[in-house]
Amino acid sequence: MNNDMLHQRIVEEYKKNGSVGYTAELLDTNKTKVRRVLITYGLWSSNTTREVVALHDQGLTTKEIAEKLCLSEKTVQTYLPYTRVFKSNKSSEAIRCKNYRDRKESAVNRQMNRAGKGGIKLLQSSGKKDYRLPNALKIRLELDLSYLSNDEKKVLYEKADMKSGIIRDVIVPSNLSLHALHYLIQRAFGWQNCHMHNFGFPSEVFNELTKNSVDRYLSLCGVYFRFPDGDIYSMFYDDDYSGDISINSWLKSKYTGPEYNESIDDLYYENQIKAEEFRNSVRYPSDDKMEHLITDDVQNRLIERLTLMDYLILPGGACDVYRGQLEGMLKKIEKSKPEIIDRWTEYISNPERYYHQLQELDDLSTIRFQSQSNLIEYYYDYGDDWKVNITCTNVYFDDYSDDFDAETVKQVIAEHRPICVKSDGMDLIEDVGGVSGFVEFLTTSSDPSNKNFENSNEWAANRGWSRRKTSPKRKL
Asked: Whole-prediction pTM value?
């Protein structure tokens, strides 16, 4: 079902039943999307919606609205009608790309990551440079608690089994993509993939990389970032949960084993087609500043087909020998881009016939191991505003026999299955109101004298939440 068809079905079903939640469940989508579609068509509103839309119509930015109404920027976005991010009309080429993307059976279907499933290749040996790539990484997933008060943190220490933070340490194959990592994070923290998400660089890294230049940013669309055309639905191209198996089993299938799925909108030339359309349709201001043409923070959304090694600066200088080649590689692929876009357009219209040609062009345009940051940020549920900080704490090569995690690493590599080795803090709950709401829930649900004690525990149980501890290795 393409995006337009889904919007139509949402409107039709809501008119029949009048329930946002039931409509979302019936159409196997999330409530945030249903609500925004209904807001767009003028079928649903609330006091907050009316305030947000009124301020938006006055020309206020999302940031200004958030500050005025004491909301997060992402919460404000969930109350805005769907609109295009850029001030330009869709060309026939953009429409062609969207129609193609919606034909799921024609998606390019191949494994992108070539770091190697069974071991490490010594790519080159020259002097003191180490050209090896790790075959496994230890990553830390830590829920952002920075804005909690000391009293709120005390509740988590006392009632959420938290010792230093809500943290998961996981050993993963080095070629795990961000897209697979999304599903891993969902299961590691007890969420159920009910809302929108995105990965991004810390703001200071994003600003340094893009140099506050629209032209520079557009050149990086398809290299690091998704072109922000407002089509968030395409990010969920493989969310095919049918209810036939448990949600945890389904989530596990998304991050275990080699990956063969990727979104068309993550590919370099698809992003560059949209970037060129934008360049040709908008007159640049003289200073070419980002804030003049691109709204809010939607531009800082990383493409998810690449791996952690392509984004994170690894400990011990691993992969550093590859870094620093970005500018030269950008010039090289941009030089041939006009000619290749014509070929790409022809090939992508018939991927079964031109599969190998598409693979070749994609490989030539993929810039790898140009790590930019020590940290990646993961955002989930723009209403609850969860944020997870992702760092890499260790790397493993083929000479890890004496390492404490050696046996676990071998299992991760052999089975291509991430393994959690440390877990601090309870699982979280969907739609609880973010971290502060979780603190409030824990306070209420652990106090039998509270009038909402039974209702809170029943509500949590209906969402599959339990206080039961799970050993780290059973977490995933």
From this structure: 0.74
